[in-house]
């Protein structure tokens, strides 16, 4: 079936059909189950083989429909060249989308792109802002990065050893909390 004027609609329809039996429709029209199915194809398990092209297609459809978690995964797939050529600009686009929707993992990944100038202009201050936002949401990796930045005077942070030690303790508590939740 050809659908002129609406690129990607067929792919989205196929993804939705594949996930019909897996969850409730989210606000953007993508079913919650399609994201779970995409994660399953990304990681695999004893009954489902890893299938990166399927994961990429599902994440792509969901991200284009506005799902920030799917955008995060899609950005990471572009960043790491999983089922697609490495594309730092596409990674930055999707990670920015997710970061702007309060996803701390995306904020942290985007900060790293800014620190290394991958897909974006190298910018320590932008990296610092994203690290701080993720740390404010108690993302352990960001809290740790902030502590290291404060200790070393790097990543746009002024050197402050006392605050660095406080942040290290906070990072440890955040990590313990994350581990107890899983």
What are the SSEs and their pairings?
Elements (H helix, E strand, L loop, with lengths): L8 H10 L13 H12 L8 H13 L3 H13 L7 H12 L4 H13 L7 H13 L3 H13 L8 H21 L1
Number of strands: 0
Instruction: Examine the secondary-structure arrangement and name the CATH architecture of the largest domain.
Output: Alpha Horseshoe
Q: Output mean pLDDT.
A: 84
Q: What is the ordering of alpha helices and beta strands? A: HHHHHHHHH
Question: How many discrete domains?
Answer: 2
Binned, the helix content reads 55-70%
Extract low-pLDDT stretches.
1-31
- Please describe the biggest sheet, giving its number of strands, its sense, and whether it closes into a barrel: none
Give the strand content: under 5%
CATH superfamily of the largest domain: Tetratricopeptide repeat domain
Quaternary state reads single chain
Number of helices: 9
Distance between the termini: 43 Å
Helix and strand content put the structural class at: mainly alpha
CATH fold node name of the largest domain: Serine Threonine Protein Phosphatase 5, Tetratricopeptide repeat
- CATH class identity of the largest domain: Mainly Alpha
What is the CA-atom radius of gyration, in angstroms? 18 Å
The outline comes out as: globular
